[in-house]
Design goal:
The complex is a heterodimer of chains A (237) and B (278). Helices cover 22% and strands 27% of the residues of chain A. With 237 residues, chain A is of the alpha+beta class. Chain B has a two-stranded antiparallel ribbon. The chains are: A alpha+beta (237), B mainly alpha (278).
Chain lengths: 237, 278
């Protein structure tokens, strides 16, 4: 009975947890508004189901300096060279980088830090360097940053690589499980700053997550349950 | 049979490190299973109270997180704007609280194993010589608390049998005999220590500990688990970012398997309870 229950539970858990990975290329938009009012936009493509707001900034190639505050998350100290020097303790006494999510037709202050804010396909993040609360960035439609959802980069191999903005280094994917940066392609956005980065081979067919960890998990659960059955038969003191 | 307090100490550190460093629910569930397995051969008759306490403790962060956190994308329901508890109740907050609660339950379970397997006298016995006197004092002081509580219960029951009141108004009548009982016990302890020649010369051991193969195996396995947990970083589980946890890394499963080694040795070797509790 123990073995059967354990095997069933392990099988159900494995089946529920296996999800297709790299099934599609998703896009998220980034809007950065400096204190001067100048706006920088980026469109980032990603293969995962979701990324965090910090990963969006990281993959967009915009220069940034952040500081972790333990369980409270990561704070943005410097973005796109503003302020020119990182204030001591990350925050200065004046303006600071405020973080927003696009909700419908407006911006909403993010309740979480960028490292804990998930972004999905079609989401848009906004940053504004300002003092005082609720200084939202200027309105920008997702379509104006990312245009229409782009086809997989491999389908448009004739395009030439976009020369990155000199002010911003080439995006580098740093997350360990992220596939290599395959293409750095121009988006169809009219914005000259828009950069489309693609992670992972787009022509790769959807494949299930590796089953080995789940098999190991199920095997260990069965072993522990069997061991429990043996020890349960022994009389306690 | 694992008897050496050092072996149990190493196992406790490994289990607590696994419980607090890795919050992946799959790893936590497996770890709880492993700790229960270790507990089973040493279980006592009154095992329900410890687990009831652990479960009650685990519910606290779950309830607090669900009621106070308004973050997350998976909304369960929305309450009207009532102070403190009004707003969105999310599955993400429930998962975060459950993960914290499970870590607390694991802590209680680990210490339940330690309480069943290691006596305070055994810990005092392995202390280095400079710490022996201080250790004995601390052990006696710690032993005083449950004995004082037991004396309080006995006095209260005695008053009830005589038909006397036991409410807070009867506190002075309860405290005076409790004080006298405690003082009498303290004198008995002092006389016992004096009769045993405590502090008069070199310490002797009536029943010295010997390392067994099982003890060594548990120490090695626990050290291995600590190294794996401390040196190999795991993907942190954050339900606010991704509600469904990722499959645990193989090294984390190895750490859980190493924590379960005392259960394996107990299943292979006969548990000599009389000798163990001697």
């Amino acid at each position: 009975m123990w073995l059967g229950a354990a095997a069933t539970a392990a099988l159900i858990a494995a089946l529920l947890a296996i999800r297709p990975a790299h099934a599609a290329v998703h896009h998220a938009a980034l809007v950065i508004q400096h204190a001067s009012g100048s706006i920088v936009t980026r469109c980032v493509a990603f293969a995962e189901e979701q990324i965090t707001g910090l990963q969006l900034v990281e993959r967009s190639g915009v220069q940034y300096e952040s500081q972790g505050f333990g369980s409270m998350g990561t704070a943005m100290c410097q973005l796109d060279r503003e302020p020119s020097t990182v204030p001591p303790g990350c925050f200065g006494s004046g303006p600071y980088w405020q973080y927003f999510h696009r909700q419908g037709a407006g911006w909403q202050t993010s309740p979480l830090g960028a490292s804990s804010s998930p972004l999905h396909d079609g989401d848009m993040d906004g940053w504004r360097y300002a003092a005082g609360k609720n200084q939202v960035p200027s309105m920008a439609a997702f379509a104006s940053v990312c245009r229409a959802p782009s086809p997989p980069p491999a389908a448009s191999a004739a395009r030439t690589a976009l020369t990155p903005n000199p002010a911003t280094p080439v995006p580098v994917a740093t997350q360990a499980p992220t596939p290599r940066l395959d293409a750095l392609l121009p988006s169809a956005s009219p914005s000259p700053d828009a950069v489309l980065t693609s992670t992972g081979p787009p022509t790769q067919p959807p494949k299930p997550t590796a089953a080995a960890p789940w098999l190991a998990l199920g095997s260990l659960a069965i072993l522990l349950l069997t061991l429990g059955a043996v020890n349960l038969r022994r009389r306690g003191p | 049979m694992i008897r050496h307090p050092v072996a149990w100490g190493a196992w406790t550190i490994a289990a607590l490190a696994a419980a607090f460093i890795d919050r992946n629910p799959y790893v936590q569930a497996l770890l709880l299973l492993a700790v229960i397995n270790v507990y089973l051969p040493y279980r006592g008759r009154r095992l329900a109270s410890t687990w009831k306490f652990g479960l009650a403790l685990a519910l606290v962060p779950l309830l607090f997180s669900a009621a106070l956190s308004r973050f997350g994308r998976h909304v369960l329901f929305t309450l009207p704007p009532i102070p403190i508890i009004g707003g969105r109740w999310t599955l993400d907050a429930v998962a975060f609280g459950a993960s914290t609660g499970l870590a607390l339950l694991l802590t209680v379970a680990v210490f339940a194993v330690l309480q069943r397997t290691v006596r305070s006298a055994d810990v005092v016995a392995i202390l280095p010589r400079p710490l022996y006197r201080a250790g004995t004092t601390v052990a006696l002081a710690l032993a005083f608390a449950p004995k004082t509580l037991a004396a309080f219960q006995a006095i209260r029951e005695a008053r009830q049998l005589r038909g006397q009141r036991t409410g807070w108004r009867a506190a002075p009548a309860l405290l005076l005999p409790l004080l006298l009982t405690t003082l009498e016990r303290a004198l008995q302890y002092g006389e016992s220590l004096d009769a045993r020649g405590f502090g008069s010369g070199r310490r002797s051991r009536y029943r010295p500990f010997h390392w067994t193969a099982a003890d060594l195996l548990v120490v090695i396995a626990s050290l291995g688990a600590i190294v794996v947990i401390a040196l190999l970083p795991a993907v942190a589980y954050n339900p606010y970012v991704d509600l469904v946890p990722a499959a645990p890394d193989p090294d984390r499963l190895l750490a859980v398997a190493l924590v379960a080694v005392p259960a394996v040795t107990a299943s292979l070797l006969r548990v000599d309870h009389a000798r163990h509790r001697a």
